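Translate sequence into structure tokens.
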Amino acid sequence: MGPHSVCRFFVAGIFALEVAAAAEPVEQSISASRQFIVYGTDVAGRGAICDFAERTKRELLTLLGQRDNWTAAIVINAQYPRANLPEAPRLSVDLAQTGFGLKLQLDLVIDSGVSRPEIRREFLRALVLEMIYRAQPNIPAGAAYFSPPDWFLEGVPAQQSDLPRDRVTAILTVPVAAKNVLPLEKFLAQRPELLDAPGRNIYRAYSFALVDLLSHAPDGSHRLAQFLLDLPASSNDPMAELRSHFPGLFESDSAEKTWEKQVARLATDQPYHLMSSAETERRLDETLRLKIADGNGEKTYELMQFPIFLKEKSAKTRLESLAHELRVLATRAHPVYAPIITDYSEISRLLLRGRTLDVPRRLERLQNSRKAIAAQMRGIDDYLNWYEATSLAGPSGEFADYLKAAKRAAQPERTKRDPISVYLDVLETQFEQ
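Result follows.
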């Protein structure tokens, strides 16, 4: 066999390998609605991504009261971390004009640095972008697109969430109790990417409150969908846009009151949940603080001050309402407080009948009992917290953001590995020598 024959066989072998490589099937999975096309990873991983994306879309369509009329597919490029691309974005959405229509692509690097809520937020971003630009398939290449506001992406309710309704209630209880609810205009101007982990949780709770308020307004689902569709033509004033799309809800003289009432409503525990001991103590304190009108206006009295406020004409009416409030509180109070609330109810009845002889002693005894119970319950909570912390099978994740920041700060700065950067690094090393 001559050298030309060997060369022909060699070229033919290379050509056969290229054809075989080109014939290998592309690893992809298509979701149930066929809108999501997932590339990369393995079959199980692609299937899980498809399922999560479809569930996110159902939740969005339910909130907006829309049918699934998608026209542009969303390509999800899911990859595991690669050493040769250390600076590749872990999670990003891109909208581009291909000449044949719009292309929506979501790049996802699957590692511990990307959380489930972050992935869901970008799924929602891609879905809303498809809705907005569905009727505008011929936007110029390179044109900037309008992304939905962060509060909407964080506020879309989820069936399976790491921030369920009861946790939203617990988070919002703190600013409501402190009478320090963040004003709506300041909330709309916040940038969640600049907040730490606790700040982001508060932001997500406020977002849930706002989306809940908008969706339950008259014709709320339709107005919320139209608000999103009108984003490309919107102004830089989010409050003005809300007033325009939800007339009557955010009038200039009542917007903040409406917002505070909404947050306070969500901060109220659901009626079928029993309150904790601390919450029961706080509610009991508020209930026993009596506002009674006198000749000069309205004054606040403690129950121990009954010799003073019983002289007022409105005291009887206030004591009757106190008895009712205590009965309502008893239905949701911590069980350990049941006998104490019963005693307070009996004292209110005695004051109504004017029988006050034994009331001071009983009030003092109840106050001492409450202090003892509060101290005991704090001790139990401290022990349970200690037990939970020492019995965890793995990290709780509560301080993950701080640990990641510390780890990044301790690592040397990564250099780029593209040819130009490598060449410049070599030159710098030579000059230093």
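Note: The first strand starts at residue 28 and ends at 30.
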